[in-house]
Amino acid sequence: MCKHIYHMHKTLQNQFRDFFYSPVSAYHLPQKLKEFENYYGVLRKRKDFLLEKRFLHLFHITDAAGKKKTLYSSQQKLTTHQIAQALFPRAYFCDLTAVFYHNLTNQVPTTMYVAQEGKGRKVDLPKEKKKAHLTDHQIFQAFIKQHRYTRKVFSFQKERIVFTERVWREEVGIEPVKVQKHFSHGERITSLERTLIDVCVAPQYCGGILNVLDYYRIAGERQLKVKRFLDIYDALAFVYPYWQAIGFVCDVVGLNSLSRALQKKFSAKNKFYLDHEAKTSWRFNEKWKLYYPEGIV
């Protein structure tokens, strides 16, 4: 059997490489090889041979706890995008990765951000979220704390992959990748509008709140789809009034069309904060009922 594999025709070798071009996890490798048995009989039992003959290549990814995950591919080198897609095939790219994709920054990130939605508790459903009523004290108690960070961080060579889990929102504002900037066919990413919402909601994954101002400033130079922005924001059904932070940022950078639309659509019921680790000593913007750190404006 091994001799038969060793003397495979070039055509079959190419078919094998194509079949395993996208990386496969150790968990899915037996099934993937089983699917290929029409060509190679009991290849799924010959993993070591395939690695030895360099038909397959081995890649180790380390998580934050030091545990290793193994991927297999016919490619000799893999990009971080490919690794992320192999680890989380149902995920989409987001946060700072999406910021770079939409040309809101010139800095090439060394961390890849992906997220995946999951159907969870009833209280996380949009209609339940919209029923929630918070007091100013409850909001302050939430925002005096530091940002929460995911523990699902993976290292590959000199780069990292950060995975976040999000509540189910029918993947609103997620679109196929159109520009092939290190991305592969079929990958998905947050739209420009969804990305601008995400950076205000979770600036810790997007370079920090000061950089968020720059992203909005650059976005203001383009034709931002205000209606689409508002539709996506509505569908995300946030408990906290992030629209107040977004409106404030729009005023600071001169994105007047979105600022007016937010003010027309919503009415502030609570005082809010531009970022976490909030302080009552921060400056207060009466228009948006928002506390913000010194030096932002």
Strand element count: 12
Contiguous helical run count: 14
C-alpha geometry? elongated
The domain count comes to 2
- Helical content stands at 25-40%
Q: Average pLDDT across residues?
A: 86
Largest sheet: spatial strand order: 1-3-2-6-7-5-4
Distance between the termini: 71 Å
CA-atom Rg in angstroms:
23 Å
Ordered list of secondary-structure elements with their pairings:
Blueprint: H1 2-6, H2 10-19, E1 24-25, H3 29-35, H4 37-40, H5 47-52, E2 57-63, E3 68-73, H6 80-87, E4 92-93, H7 95-101, E5 111-118, H8 126-129, H9 136-143, E6 153-156, E7 159-167, E8 174-176, E9 188-190, H10 192-201, H11 209-219, H12 226-236, H13 242-253, H14 256-265, E10 272-273, E11 283-285, E12 290-292
Parallel strand pairs: 5-7, 10-12
Antiparallel strand pairs: 1-3, 2-3, 2-6, 4-5, 6-7, 8-9, 11-12
Helix pairs in contact: 7-10, 10-11, 11-13, 13-14
In words, what does this structure look like?
The protein has 297 residues and is an alpha+beta fold. It has two domains: 2-78, no CATH class; 81-292, no CATH class. The protein is built from 14 helices and twelve strands. The protein has helices spanning 2-6, 10-19, 29-35, 37-40, 47-52, 80-87, 95-101, 126-129, 136-143, 192-201, 209-219, 226-236, 242-253, 256-265, and strands at 24-25, 57-63, 68-73, 92-93, 111-118, 153-156, 159-167, 174-176, 188-190, 272-273, 283-285, 290-292. The strands form three sheets. It has a seven-stranded mixed β-sheet with strand order 1-3-2-6-7-5-4. Strands 10-12-11 form a three-stranded mixed β-sheet. A two-stranded antiparallel ribbon has the order 8-9. A hairpin with a 4-residue loop joins strand 11 and strand 12. The chain is elongated and about 70 Å long.
